[in-house]
Structures are given as C-alpha cells and as structure tokens.
Amino acid sequence: NSTKINPPTWIKGKWKLNTNDYNQYYTFTNDDIIRHSLGQTTNIKPIADLGAYSQTSSDTEFSFTFHQLNTSQTYQFKKVTSSKILFDHGMGGNEYDMWSELLKQ
C-alpha cells in the first residue's frame, strides 16, 4: 500500500513551531509528513513504507507512531483552531500544558 500515511484534511499544510528558539515546522501532505528541524528535512513516508509506522486520526486529533527495534515513539497533534494546533514533540502523555503550539503558515 503506497498510501499508509493519510493525515486528516484539517492538518494538511505547513505548521510552524510558535517560538523564536527553533526553526521547526511540519508539512502534512496527502501521503507524507515532512519534518523540518535545525536545517534538516525528514520525510516520514519512507519509514511508513517499511511498515514501521502507524497512525490514528479524528476531527480534532492526529497521531503517528514510529516502530523501531523494540521501541515506539508517538507524535500527537490536537486541533485548537483552524490555524493553531498543539504538538507533544513525541514525548507522549496528555499533559496539554506541556505541549507546544504550531501555527498554520
């Protein structure tokens, strides 16, 4: 299956971390998630194509999990408004006060 990644419509586009400390952002397309951080770009699709990926989504939340060796790392996104989402940096948990804001670009 070449479309293992299916971000929901509400999250598609470019989202930038709402801080001046990092030039970090995510781009969600129809079949990929692209992470830009510290001058490096990482496409998630190749990992998903290897079968080391899973996702869940709803009208207000989207999460994806990398499965590598004996560990997993989950990234969660929660819609606040059409131009702001919360992001957990792969730390896990539901302590929203510890999450960062991403703003639609």
Describe the structure concisely.
The protein has 105 residues and is mainly beta. It is built from one helix and nine strands, in the order E-E-E-E-H-E-E-E-E-E. The model has no long low-confidence stretch (mean pLDDT 85).
Distance between the termini: 30 Å
Percent in strands: over 45%
What is the makeup of the main sheet?
9 strands, antiparallel
Low-confidence stretches: none
- Count of helical stretches: 1
Strands of the widest sheet, in order across it, are: 4-3-2-1-9-8-7-6-5
**Overall number of strands:** 9
What do you see in this structure?
There is one protein chain. By secondary structure, this protein is mainly beta. It contains 1 helix and 9 strands. The protein has a 9-stranded antiparallel β-sheet with strand order 4-3-2-1-9-8-7-6-5. Strand 1 and strand 2 form a beta hairpin. It is globular. 14% of the residues are buried. The model has no long low-confidence stretch (mean pLDDT 85).
Offer a few descriptive terms.
single chain, 105 residues, mainly beta, 9-stranded antiparallel beta sheet, 1 helix, 5% helix, 49% strand
